[in-house]
Design the sequence.
């Protein structure tokens, strides 16, 4: 049975109950998420052939320090970096290293800043130089999956409506949805209830209620959906080595739909791709 609880009364740990936040809480999330979005905007000019993901990691750390924010991933469950950098067939949780990016790579950069106790969690894809059409199309499909998932958010719907919207579109475009990872509640905690699956049926999952805050972060593969985690315990890759892409927003359920907290202030929600109205 699903339990909902006012966030102010909830313990500072994931108990399985779904927190309902206030408008004041939404303001806190907005501040944290906009700092994350500003960092992701800045990275659009930094990601290019020859740049290392270690350099990206340093930038994310220093940007956070300059703005009074702590990267949430740093020392999280033993993770040693301020960012996740997932290149080509890496699905998620790729670790920064000194190997330079190459022309034609695609990379997901996942940033979470903690600001005044709130977690601003978002990620975007970046093309490295000129990429092949198949890679560009995968990014386009994945971003559209995110938009369709967000459009399904409204009070009274179920979390399965998000998954159904994403899965239906991805599979119609001959892509596959990763099952091993999902979106999650976020706010005062980095990872909280509920899990937001990116596949499923509209009549499945907890009911969406005003005040819920969570991420939607579909991981879409050009090949099959199966993944494996490497020996480092973090890096997840496609088993068939097909390209993978992911975009992520943090959203809050409102009385009429949802607010997207992590929208780019510079209009760079899909950097390197043509504008949607272009």
Sequence:
């Amino acid at each position: 049975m699903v339990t909902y609880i006012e966030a102010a009364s909830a313990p500072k740990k994931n108990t399985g109950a779904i927190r309902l936040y206030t408008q004041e809480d939404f303001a806190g999330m907005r501040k944290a998420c906009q700092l994350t979005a500003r960092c992701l905007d800045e990275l659009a000019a930094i990601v290019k052939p020859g740049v290392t993901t270690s350099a990206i990691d340093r930038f994310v750390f220093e940007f956070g320090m300059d703005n009074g924010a702590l990267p949430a991933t740093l020392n999280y469950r033993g993770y040693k970096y301020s960012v996740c950098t997932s290149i080509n067939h890496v699905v998620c949780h790729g670790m920064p290293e000194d190997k330079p990016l190459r022309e034609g790579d695609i990379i997901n950069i996942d940033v979470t800043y903690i600001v005044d106790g709130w977690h601003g969690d978002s990620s975007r894809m970046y093309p490295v130089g000129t990429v092949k059409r198949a890679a560009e199309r995968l990014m386009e499909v994945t971003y559209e999956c995110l938009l369709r998932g967000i459009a399904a958010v409204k009070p009274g719907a179920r979390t399965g409506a998000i998954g159904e919207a994403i899965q239906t579109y991805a599979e119609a475009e001959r892509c596959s949805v990763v099952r091993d990872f999902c979106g999650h509640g976020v706010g005062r905690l980095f990872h909280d209830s509920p899990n937001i699956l990116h596949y499923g049926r509209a009549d499945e999952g907890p009911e969406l209620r005003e005040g819920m805050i969570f991420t939607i972060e579909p991981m879409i593969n050009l090949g099959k959906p199966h993944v494996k985690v490497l020996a480092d315990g973090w890096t997840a890759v496609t088993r068939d080595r097909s390209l993978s892409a992911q975009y992520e927003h943090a959203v809050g359920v409102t009385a009429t739909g949802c607010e997207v907290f992590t929208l780019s202030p510079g209009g760079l929600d899909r950097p390197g791709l043509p504008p949607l109205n272009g």
